[in-house]
TrEMBL record, chains A, B, C:
SUPFAM superfamilies given in the database record: YjgF-like (SSF55298)
Protein known as: RidA family protein
Ranges where the record places region Disordered: 1-20
InterPro entries the UniProt entry points to: RutC-like_sf, YjgF/YER057c/UK114
Amino acid sequence: MTDKTALTPARHTAPPARFSHGVRKGGILQVAGQVGFGPAEEGRPPQPVGPGLREQTLQTLENVRAVLEEGGASWEDAMMVRVYLTDTAHFSEFNAIYDEYFAVLDQPPAARTTVYVGLPAGLLVEIDALAVLG
Amino acid sequence: MTDKTALTPARHTAPPARFSHGVRKGGILQVAGQVGFGPAEEGRPPQPVGPGLREQTLQTLENVRAVLEEGGASWEDAMMVRVYLTDTAHFSEFNAIYDEYFAVLDQPPAARTTVYVGLPAGLLVEIDALAVLG
Amino acid sequence: MTDKTALTPARHTAPPARFSHGVRKGGILQVAGQVGFGPAEEGRPPQPVGPGLREQTLQTLENVRAVLEEGGASWEDAMMVRVYLTDTAHFSEFNAIYDEYFAVLDQPPAARTTVYVGLPAGLLVEIDALAVLG
């Protein structure tokens, strides 16, 4: 019996409900949907880091990375990245940021699905990831 | 070679196409998107249990649970819960119901992603889940 | 340490960003979101095969299949199929095409979640899949 471990990066804001930012069990690591919230600040509600797609995307990817690393993994272990944007007009700009962020990887990049959905006001992007370790 | 097993809770309505309510292969169990349909009734098309978010959410979570249990798993084994709502205005109420439902768990709660999409008329929520056993 | 392998069917168009059409690591194979693009043609941007749901759906399913096969898997190994449609009015027609496509399978069909989202102009359907081998 392998334990399921919750992955909670120290600077992450608390999830808005009873879910984990990430969980690992054996070689499987799942990262919850991350958004562009900056580091938690005592007594202040979570806020996206900037009004723009670029700032939010980079922060979101860093938030995913923090969860991966909390579980002993890295982007190299990511199998799938799910991207939720809010506007099809953001696709090219998002891809440029994504390519820049993943310019250096020691393994093939993860697969990805990108769809356009509604998100809470102020959020332009949400990303989750599945990783396999070992 | 491990077999893939279909998971079909006895009281579930038949899927509207050639897919399984859940499948398990080795230690991986995937639950298909569940909605708030009540138990199947002979000669009656599937119906959501109530017009409200609360009834549909609780029924949907129970439907996911039934598939997990059909595969020898429980919420304790869930790694990821994907929540599809139709209205961002439902987020707080949904989270309150979710927290109440998961008040008692012997393992860390699953990760979660919540996005807002279109669903067939009458449905307010759809949920699927990935579990890892063993 | 198991390697992560990128899966790149020869006739697939290049992904629009730094992601893989599919990756396999050990027994886990993830297919990226596929759309109804026909085979790559030198010097021509990717194009969906037809204006209609039927042509796009069949091509999309074939594109998923090509990635599965590139990784030594088949639809028999698929655990989860995620379907993104753009219009709830397409649900019945889509299900009929899906059932026809999966009429013959040697294993129980995969689980499935279907939601309605925005996609880039001209695309009516996007599909990804998770498979477990062995």
